[in-house]
Specification:
By secondary structure, the protein is α/β, with parallel strands linked by helices. About 40% of the residues lie in helices and about 15% in strands.
Length: about 260
């Protein structure tokens, strides 16, 4: 059995703890967070602590905190030559203190603390400096039922950047769509089958081939009508920006 200590209790740390709690191959022997009250409700399930000097010896230490404190936290760990990994998509593996065996266990998914997570749908990207550490991290990720992929730092960084476009930016477009429908009392729920169909479509074809809409077909009349409908200048700017992006991609002239 692989023994694990989790450091951090944000969205990722919480879901990782819940995921490992469901497997017999991994034992989370301790959970650290600088605010003990955040994990107090888990006291009966795992040893909790807010003291870095009281960390137990484990096979793997998983740092699941904000990118800007990874380096500081890893430098404060008093032990040496143990496997310490972080879960960030953009932070360097070299942000971890060089006194440790270093790696990255990056779950490529959007995490919300209150939403259930099925790790069989969460690819975990693995990076290690020491090649001998890779099999252990692969076994750790596989225990969650996750597909695994060995990648390098450059690949992980571009995946994280692309994830911002396909997830964070797309969700903001959902929010704008919600605001537009609300403005006339239309039901946003009527758009959900369209959202699902669009997501399903790119499982079998490239986003380039899946593109539809007035910008793709250079329907100037519809585009002009849409821009006239938009009273919110921010929404109008987003519409123009994305319309021009689609036109550029598909060989049309910009607005």
């Amino acid at each position: 059995m692989i023994s694990v200590v989790i450091l951090g209790a944000g969205n990722v740390g919480t879901h990782i703890f819940k995921g490992f709690s469901k497997t017999d191959e991994v034992s989370v022997i301790q959970w650290y967070n600088r605010s003990l009250s955040t994990i107090q409700s888990y006291k009966g399930l795992v040893d909790i602590t807010d003291n870095l000097n009281a960390l137990k010896e484990a096979d793997v230490y998983i740092i699941a905190v904000s990118d800007d404190i990874i380096a500081d936290l890893s430098s404060k760990l008093s032990f040496e030559n143990r496997l310490v990994v972080h879960t960030s998509g953009s932070a360097s593996v070299y942000d971890l203190d060089m006194k440790h065996k270093r790696g990255v266990l990056y779950p490529l998914q959007s995490f919300s603390k209150d939403a259930e997570m099925d790790f069989t749908n969460v690819p975990i990207c693995i990076e290690t400096i020491d090649k001998k550490s890779y099999p252990l991290l692969k076994k750790l990720a596989a225990s969650l039922g996750s597909p695994t992929k060995r990648i390098n730092s450059d690949q992980r960084r571009v995946l994280h950047l692309a994830a911002v476009f396909v997830n964070n930016f797309t969700n903001q477009l959902y929010r704008i769509g919600h605001e537009i429908t609300e403005s006339e009392g239309a039901e946003f729920d009527l758009l959900k089958p369209l959202i699902t169909e669009t997501a399903n479509k790119i499982q079998d074809m490239s986003p380039f081939k899946a593109q539809t809409g007035p910008a793709k077909r250079n329907d100037k009349k519809t585009i002009k009508k849409h821009l006239k409908q938009l009273d919110n200048e921010h929404h109008k700017a987003v519409y123009e920006l994305l319309t021009n992006s689609i036109k550029r991609t598909h060989g049309r002239k910009k607005l």
